[in-house]
Automatic annotation (TrEMBL):
The protein's name: Dihydroorotate dehydrogenase (quinone)
Presence of keyword Oxidoreductase: yes
GO biological process, one term: 'de novo' pyrimidine nucleobase biosynthetic process
Gene name tied to this protein: pyrD
Organism of origin: Chitinophaga oryziterrae
Top-rank EC class of the record's enzyme: oxidoreductase
Residues covered by the Dihydroorotate dehydrogenase catalytic domain: 49-340
InterPro entries noted in UniProt: Aldolase_TIM, DHO_dehydrogenase, Dihydroorotate_DH_1_2, Dihydroorotate_DH_2, Dihydroorotate_DH_cat, Dihydroorotate_DH_CS
Catalytic reaction(s) noted: (S)-dihydroorotate + a quinone = orotate + a quinol
Active site per UniProt: S179
Sequence positions that bind substrate: K70, N115, R116, M117, G118, F119, N176, N181, N246, T247
Signal peptide start and end residues: none
Protein family (similarity comment): Belongs to the dihydroorotate dehydrogenase family. Type 2 subfamily.
Subunit structure: Monomer.
Enzyme Commission number(s) of this protein: 1.3.5.2
C-alpha cells in the first residue's frame, strides 16, 4: 500500500511534500477517529521491548533521528506512529532560514537522501515553547548546534544558549558538531575545541538539580585515530553517550548515475549507503570501550534486520530517518515486530 503512495509522493519536491504530509497527519491526528486509526495502523503490538537508559524508560528502542522534526512541531503526531523517542532539531539559538532551495534530494536507486538543509529552524526558544504544549509523554531529545554566522571561536556560547533554552523541555541533549552543511562546523570535532565545548556543557549540566544526559553526534567519515580521540574525550568529560552516525560526505558505491549525483552537488548522504560504515563505527566504539559508552545507532536502518545489526554491534537504541521516508509510517511497528 505505502509503495503505491510513495510512488505518488516521490513525484513532488522532497521538502515540499514533507510539510504537506506532516500537515495532513496533524489534521488526521486532531480527529478522534483519525487518531485512533493512526494508532491502530502504526503502533507496535509488542510490549516487551522497553529499554531503561540514563534513568529514562523508552517504550521501545526505535526513535526518530534529528532533522525530521526540526522545530518540534509534530511530536504528538510522531508519538502516535509508535516511536520510542523523538529527537528534535538541530536547533540553533537564533532562527535561520538554512541554505538555498532545493536542498533535499532523493536517490531512489540507492534508497538514500542527500541534504544540505543548513540547520533551518525557528530557534531554540520557539521550539521550547512548542514542547511545553505537547500532550504525549514520548521521550524527547534536543539536538543542538550553532548558527551559521557564529564563528567557531564563539560556538560554545551558541550551544550554551540552546542548552538553557531547552533544558526544562527535553529529556536528553545531543551536541551536533558533525553536520557537513554548516561551514567549518566539523572542525569542532577536532580534539581540543571539542573537549572545551563538552567540558563547558557538562559544567553547566552539573549545576542543575537534575542533570540531563548529554550525547555527542559524530560523523561516519572519522578515521580510527579520530574515533580514539572521541572516545578519550567522552570518557574524560563523562558524557552520557554517542549518536553514531550523521550523514556522510562520501559518494562511493552509489547506483545513481555519477552525472546525476554531481548535478545535485554538496550535502550529507544518508540511507542505505551509510549502513555499513555506521555499523563499523558502532562496533569500533563498543569494542574499544568494552561497551561502557551507550550508543544510539543511526544510518541505513530500514528493516528489523538492519536495526538488529546495529544492536548486535553494540548500540542500545536505534534511530531512523531515511528509512522512515522510504518505508512509511509503519516502519516502527515492523521493526519492533522483528527484533529479538
Amino acid at each position: 500500500m505505502y509503495n503505491l503512495i510513495k510512488n505518488l509522493l516521490f513525484r513532488f519536491p522532497p521538502e515540499n511534500i514533507h510539510y504537506q504530509v506532516m500537515k495532513g497527519l496533524q489534521i488526521l491526528h486532531s480527529l478522534p477517529m483519525g487518531r485512533k486509526l493512526v494508532h491502530t495502523y502504526c503502533m507496535p503490538a509488542r510490549k516487551d521491548l522497553e529499554k531503561k537508559l540514563w534513568g529514562l524508560t523508552f517504550k521501545n528502542p526505535v526513535g526518530l533521528a534529528a532533522g525530521f522534526d526540526k522545530d518540534a512541531k509534530y511530536t504528538d503526531e510522531l508519538a502516535s506512529l509508535g516511536f520510542g523517542f523523538v529527537e528534535i532539531g538541530t536547533v540553533t539559538p537564533v532562527a535561520q532560514p538554512g541554505n538555498d532551495q532545493p536542498r533535499l534530494f532523493r536517490l531512489p536507486k540507492d534508497k538514500a537522501l542527500i541534504n544540505r538543509m543548513g540547520f533551518n529552524n525557528g530557534g531554540a526558544v520557539a521550539a521550547a515553547k512548542r514542547l511545553q504544549k505537547r500532550r504525549s509523554d514520548i521521550i524527547i531529545g534536543g539536538n543542538i548546534g550553532k548558527n551559521k554566522i557564529t564563528p567557531n571561536e564563539e560556538a560554545i556560547s551558541d550551544y550554551e544558549k540552546c542548552f538553557h533554552a531547552l533544558f526544562d523541555v527535553v529529556d536528553y541533549f545531543v551536541v551536533n558538531v558533525s553536520s557537513p552543511n554548516t561551514p567549518n562546523l566539523r572542525a569542532l570535532q577536532e580534539k581540543e575545541p571539542l573537549k572545551q565545548l563538552l567540558h563547558h556543557l557538562q559544567t553547566l549540566n552539573s549545576l542543575k538539580t537534575k542533570p540531563k544526559p548529554i550525547l555527542l553526534k559524530i560523523a561516519p567519515d572519522l578515521t580510527d585515530s579520530q574515533l580514539d580521540d572521541i572516545i578519550e574525550i567522552i570518557q574524560e568529560t563523562k558524557l552520557a553517550g554517542i549518536v553514531a552516525t550523521n550523514t556522510t560526505i562520501s559518494r562511493e558505491g552509489l547506483q545513481t548515475p555519477e552525472a546525476e549525483v554531481t548535478a545535485i552537488g554538496a550535502g550529507g548522504l544518508s540511507g542505505l549507503p551509510v549502513k555499513e560504515r555506521a555499523t563499523q563505527v558502532i562496533k569500533y566504539i563498543h569494542q574499544h570501550t568494552n561497551g561502557s559508552i551507550p550508543i544510539i545507532a543511526v544510518g541505513g536502518i530500514f528493516t528489523a534486520a538492519d536495526a538488529q545489526e546495529k544492536l548486535d554491534a553494540g548500540a542500545s537504541l536505534v534511530q531512523v530517518y531515511t528509512g522512515f521516508v522510504y518505508e512509511g509510517p509503519t516502519i516502527v511497528k515492523k521493526i519492533c515486530a522483528g527484533l529479538k
